[in-house]
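Extended Data, panel c. Modelled sequence:
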Amino acid sequence: MVEGLANDSFASGNLLFLPIGASIFSYLLFGFGVLPGIAIANTLFGYFFWDSWSGLGFPGFTGHVVVGSLAPIVAMLMMRLFNLSKFFDGQKLNFHHVVFLIILTAFINTLSKFFIYMSVLPIAPDPAIFFSTYLIGDMLGGLVFVYVVSRISTFLIKQ
């Protein structure tokens, strides 16, 4: 279930994309200043572990690294625009707003990657498969990562 993008089926994605959760959590904790670090992490992770752009050149790089790094920022700015960006109540994490942020980020990330990959892949991906795997993978990866890391950090702080 947690496997990378393969060369033969680029549109399949995976069902638990944890890097999107790491990006969201980093932006929540440290602000937008971590963008270069997240872009470098996405580049290294995508290139060395998954071969994510699998010979697609700059458009594949753009789809994975640029969109993957900027999707949480775009979602946070959209939430600020509609006054939904209160992620912390005092010292507690407002998980309802974070869940909405994860869902919005997943939609932005999936739609952006779909249109980029649709234009550069030799065989157009099936939209139903692409959206179901990428959207669910982004949502589950974000939820699992943020929930687990917030619980672990809460436990460690109490000790």
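The helical segments are 18-30, 35-50, 57-81, 95-120, 127-158. This feature is highlighted in the accompanying rendering.
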